[in-house]
Write a structure and sequence with these properties.
Strand content of chain A: 25-35%
Shape of chain A: globular
Order of helices and strands of chain A: HEEEHEHEEEHHHEHEHHEHEEE
Radius of gyration of chain A: 21 Å
Strand order of the largest sheet of chain A: 8-10-7-11-9-12-13
Number of domains of chain A: 2
Number of strands of chain A: 13
Largest sheet of chain A: 7 strands, mixed
Number of helices of chain A: 10
Oligomer: homodimer
Distance between the termini of chain A: 35 Å
Largest interface: A-B, 76 and 77 residues
CATH topology of the largest domain in chain A: Phosphoribosyl-aminoimidazole Synthetase, Chain A, domain 2
CATH class of the largest domain in chain A: Alpha Beta
Structural class of chain A: alpha+beta
Chain lengths: 344, 344
């Protein structure tokens, strides 16, 4: 095991960034100067997003492997760029590292970040590395690009637009419940082997989410440009309210159309939790939520992995879900929110 | 006093970013979507830099006012963009906020960030806000731009180039020593009034540094493009070694030419510290260190606030300082480095 303190900041950065290859022609200079240097095509706009992940707020190293954490920390940023209908190109990575980490730990974390960059064709171009007296801190900023007329904001939804989601919902949240349950069960027991049999999908959704580049590509191929879009990091309900508030619309979604995986349903039953609540309010799915004009109905039905779950209404009708027994329930933004007391 | 938890993340972001005005035409969309959107002039390259500041590693809230902290956190990023000979245009701000902070505290911090943006003409376009169980975390990313042929890297210094620094060195470090001394003296005493008389400059240099936009503008006006440049955040000695290593050169600087303020000298004497060591290795001056061709000697001498302190040599001669009594001392990168044990 190697002590980070023996390397110092610059030694550590050199070690972590050695052999970094750039794959994007927009990357002119990466790590090693006061700033990274990029150049984007004149017809493209530049997109910037950033995420801060703090130990014991956003992740628990008891059950999150460092390589997975690095992968996820990068991917959630890519997801934000795809949610603008853009392409992620570069990231900067800032780390605050507490003294209980060895060089090997940090290399594991970086291996995950670098793998995510490789898979999504993104260049690591800079960052900052520091000691932390307070546990692991990860701050990633992602820069992307898109032709101006392709960018999709949150505020473009119009009444009669169809509301679509990719993949399925609630699985990452159920994965978190499962991991927390096994953590409690394992407390103090050295021989404990967590039991994830038949629930591998939930664990994977929590620990190693993917950004839906594939959906963006399929929509483009199908000739569909969403009118509004965002990624689902805080729960469907909360995100849908964002789109409706910013678009000055209401919405109706149908309970029986919300895509939920079988493993998610089984787990909800095991935990005696309301399945639809988990799908509406469980965070970290990183699926795409978007609206398309009604005229794209036929086209969007053919796009693999996309589900039409409802439609946009006039603002005065509010945001509601139609239940299986035809009742209307007002949607609330109860998404995962570490700043609220009740969720601590 | 208002509880942040009653607002939640989105309420807090709304509150902090209300009435934000954008002054740069390159800013198309700021806070409020998955990513900020910018567009830069086709002939300009895009510069990106990022800094992570952690409580009790990079700042001590016992004596750092939150507004100053916010100002400094933004300015140190602007300084990195100026050090590329670029212009800062946008920042994103991510905050991890521990529960001992009230809304008013966070607004103070933000007031400092927004003031810095106003002074330097930079737009606040995004960020992330989260609870922290670990003290205050501030991660700022700055995006800037520059025409490609104006960008100055660290690796362009050539033998016979003159080595220049702006302003004076060591004052921020002495300010830190002073603040630490008064903190110790005040421990447990409620009626304690710190004594900064005659040392106001040192305190200001530590608490409210400025980025040297003025120097960049003066060099431009004087028709000088540095061959290499960086800002001095970790100490002159360490930064000079960076430039020489990356430029594959050596250097000679003269002890008696290192610009030091009178207050810095008085404070060093009071603390019985070596003044030149403080100027060489004390961090956080945020002055500019740059090299210019020998042919610009006349021109650079006329630039207000710039001092020629030595020259670049062939690599094999190494990096050294010529002392007042004509001895050669090898320069070492002993800059401020929170990842090294001995400085904790």
């Amino acid at each position: 095991m190697s002590e980070i303190s023996s390397l110092g900041e610059f030694g550590l950065i050199d070690r972590l960034t050695e052999n970094i290859q750039h794959v994007n022609p927009s990357t002119l200079r990466g790590v090693g100067d006061d700033a990274a240097v990029m150049h984007y095509e004149p017809h493209n706009d530049v997109l910037v997003t950033t995420d801060l992940l703090l130990e014991n707020v956003h992740f628990d190293l008891t059950y999150v492997p460092l390589k997975h954490l690095g992968y996820k920390a990068a991917v959630v940023n890519f997801s934000d760029i795809y949610a603008m209908n853009g392409t992620p190109r570069q990231i900067t990575v800032s780390l605050g590292i507490s003294s209980r980490f060895t060089l090997e730990h940090v290399e594991e974390l970086y291996a995950g970040i670098r793998l995510a960059c490789e898979v999504y064709g993104v260049d690591l171009v800079g960052g900052d590395t520091s000691a932390s007296h307070q546990g692991l801190v990860i701050s990633i900023t992602c820069i992307g690009e898109a032709p101006r007329d392709r960018i999709v904001y949150r505020d473009g939804a119009k009444p009669t637009d169809l509301i679509c989601v990719s993949g399925d919902l609630g699985a990452a949240y159920m994965g978190l419940q499962l991991l927390e349950r096994e953590k409690v069960a394992s407390a103090g027991r050295k021989d404990f082997v967590p039991d994830f049999a038949g629930k591998e999908y939930l664990v994977e959704r929590q620990l190693k989410p993917e950004a839906r580049r594939d959906i963006i590509e399929r929509l483009d191929k199908a000739g569909i440009k969403p009118t509004a879009m965002m990624d689902i990091s805080d729960g469907l309900s909360s995100e849908l309210i964002h789109i409706c508030t910013q678009s000055k619309t209401g919405c109706r979604i149908y309970e029986d159309r919300i895509p939920i995986d079988y493993q998610t349903a089984v787990m909800a039953e095991e935990l005696n939790m309301n399945l639809v609540t988990a799908a509406l309010n469980g965070g970290e799915d990183y699926e795409l939520l978007f609206t398309v004009p009604l005229t794209d109905h036929e086209k969007v039905l053919k796009v693999e992995g996309v589900h039409v779950i409802g439609y946009i209404t006039e603002e005065k009708l509010g945001c509601a879900m139609i239940t299986r027994d035809d009742a209307e329930i007002t949607l609330k933004a109860q998404g995962w929110n570490p700043l609220r007391d009740e969720q601590k």
